[in-house]
Amino acid sequence: MEKKYKNLPLRCGVGIIVLNKDNKVFVARRIDNPKNFWQMPQGGVDKGEDFLSAAYRELEEETSIKNVKLIKEIDGLTTYELPKHLLGIIWRGKFRGQKQKWFIMRYLGSDKEINIQTKKPEFLEWKWVDIATITEIVVDFKLHVYKELKEKIIKMIN
Description:
- It is a single chain.
- Strands 1, 4, 5, 6 and 7 form a five-stranded mixed β-sheet that branches. A three-stranded antiparallel β-sheet has the order 3-2-8, with no helix packed on it.
- The protein is globular.
- Helices cover 20% and strands 31% of the residues.
- It contains three helices and eight strands, in the order αββββαββββα.
- The chain has one domain (3-157): Nucleoside Triphosphate Pyrophosphohydrolase.
- With 158 residues, it is an alpha+beta fold.
């Protein structure tokens, strides 16, 4: 990492693992990444906002999903660092990566309630995938986070 970015803080964020009735995971493909990488909903925590409130807000902002039940708050925080080519670009250059609190939620609605064409769309398309495949479709700098999450989800539903 370049010296000028080493002292940048990590952005405080949340991530949401949304499971449908068949224990498939919601993933979406970002507008700003034309490659075939998918991710679970995630975003920043606003000043004065707690993690869970941020998770509900981000989920609705990105997917229009409101009809969920909290299953579990995952212990601890996960972190990732941005790759060199994204430093100084993402988050207006204010952060070198992100530390995230993750939540597992059960989606109680129907697929037709999901709408990624929001006020500020972030995704091109979405789908439900098997938990086993989430590490095959994620961008490389988040792979370690998704591996850790995959293990925790599998333990929880088995």
